């Protein structure tokens, strides 16, 4: 009898609960570690002897950068897509993610996601099934499993800030599907880096008007209205419900970038 894994891939056996710790997979009795690497780095409580281990942590951080750069150095032009890990497969947003991933792959773009379930899985699935390069950048979390099965090239990280660098360094555009705190964090970090010209002017697409319209209105009316941002800053955001429109925005921006390089 074939049994479905939690990820939905048949392999004839139940897929055990697992946890990613950087490149390491932990299952069964090894799941007991209650904290993550990020938490142990940032937590200042407890004995002070942890201070003396920080130089060694720097080497681990350096190794993560080297591993990420090495794995992604030859990736073709790519689009990073953010979105919720909690989007159910039966939800219309999941189907939209699959269509978006396939459409981006159809233009020759690789897609980069956080490699998890939900909207991330949908985009990876669409890209992989369409014959494109599907990339997942995972993170050690206490409550999520490893990379989804539609990731063709995957890298697992211990530290959020290393992973975020990879999201941005290897992308020519950012698309945000509906998501929670993590998606908001990634959205505003991307906007800040584009606004301050730390990265070349990439488009940032908010996909799903019903979900994003309230935030967009607040940014336009309150942030811009009070002078905290300007018209050029607001123009960095593109709000759409249409897959073809989102892909067109990405394509136009890339062609404009290519013309100047």
CATH topology, by name, is Rossmann fold
- What's the architecture in CATH terms? 3-Layer(aba) Sandwich
Derived structural class: alpha/beta
Count of folded domains = 1
* Overall helicity: 40-55%
CATH class membership: Alpha Beta
Strand content: 5-15%
Order of helices and strands: EEHHEHEHEEHEHEHHEH
Distance between the termini: 56 Å
The residue ranges in which pLDDT falls below 50 over 5 or more consecutive positions are 1-13
Number of separate strands: 9
From the alpha-carbon coordinates, what is the Rg to the nearest angstrom? 19 Å
Largest sheet composition = 7 strands, parallel
Whole-number average pLDDT?
Answer: 86
Strand adjacency order, main sheet: 6-5-4-3-7-8-9
Count of discrete alpha- or pi-helical segments spanning 4 or more residues: 9
User: What does the overall shape look like?
Assistant: globular
Region (Disordered): 1-46
EC number: 3.2.2.n1
Family: Belongs to the LOG family.
Biased composition (Basic and acidic residues): 12-21
Notes on the structure:
- Helix content is 43%, strand content 15%.
- The chain has 261 residues and is α/β, with parallel strands linked by helices.
- The chain has a seven-stranded parallel β-sheet, with helices on both faces.
- 35% of the residues are buried.
- The N terminus is likely disordered.
Write the layout of secondary structure elements.
Blueprint: E1 18-21, E2 24-27, H1 37-42, H2 54-72, E3 78-82, H3 92-106, E4 110-113, H4 119-129, E5 134-139, E6 153-157, H5 160-169, E7 174-176, H6 181-195, E8 204-207, H7 209-224, H8 231-234, E9 237-240, H9 243-259
Parallel strand pairs: 3-4, 3-7, 4-5, 5-6, 7-8, 8-9
Antiparallel strand pairs: 1-2
Helix pairs in contact: 3-4, 3-9
Biased composition (Basic and acidic residues): 12-21
Pfam families: Lysine_decarbox
Keywords: Cytokinin biosynthesis, Hydrolase
